[in-house]
Predict the structure.
Amino acid sequence: GLSFIPESENGATALSAWAGLCRMIPVPILDDILVRQARRKMVRNTLKARGISRPRTLVRNLAHWEKRSLFAMIGYVLRSLLLKPLKIVFRTIFFWLAIRDAGKTMVETWLLGVTLGGLDEYLLNYYPREVGQSFGVAVRSVDQHITDHLARKVWRKVRRKPDSSIPGDRIEVDPNLVRDVIEREDAGFLAKFDARFRQELSLRVPSGN
């Protein structure tokens, strides 16, 4: 099932919040880079807590389930540049949309942490690409209502540490915040997400593994 490794739960939740906050940066590509850095760090920390070796390819396959092609990236940058003047005019509307995106990023990153925390070590070592692909499909089924509600809660409860210069260690957040909000909004969500993920994984990994 889905579970954090106790030693990494606090940091994983904080890194999820940090990844969400990075989505608020109004600079094309930079937000993606920082989100990926936060996710890679969370993957490394989770694997370390489980005593699993962490080669770069393993971390990359597990942390980067969202992969844009070159053309998709160019389109993303152009859309961002074209929308910038509109964002200035409709600052309030776009700010709320940015918060929604931040909440979505935080939930997805947190789910990555709990997925890796409870997954069989054999699958992580020998089928990291399939794990990442299966997670990508499952995470797209997340209800936007949950992420909207989480976004409202998070920005009121996250605390920034002024004396820290390490990304992901700059904020304080209740390690149970994401889980509490998800379970309050949809008590069966985590079980359904786990079932969806494992269904997708079974389509990519030979039976018996």
The beta strands are 159-160, 171-172. Confidence is low (pLDDT under 50) at residues 161-168. Residues 79 and 125 are 38 Å apart (CA to CA). The chain has ten helices and two strands.
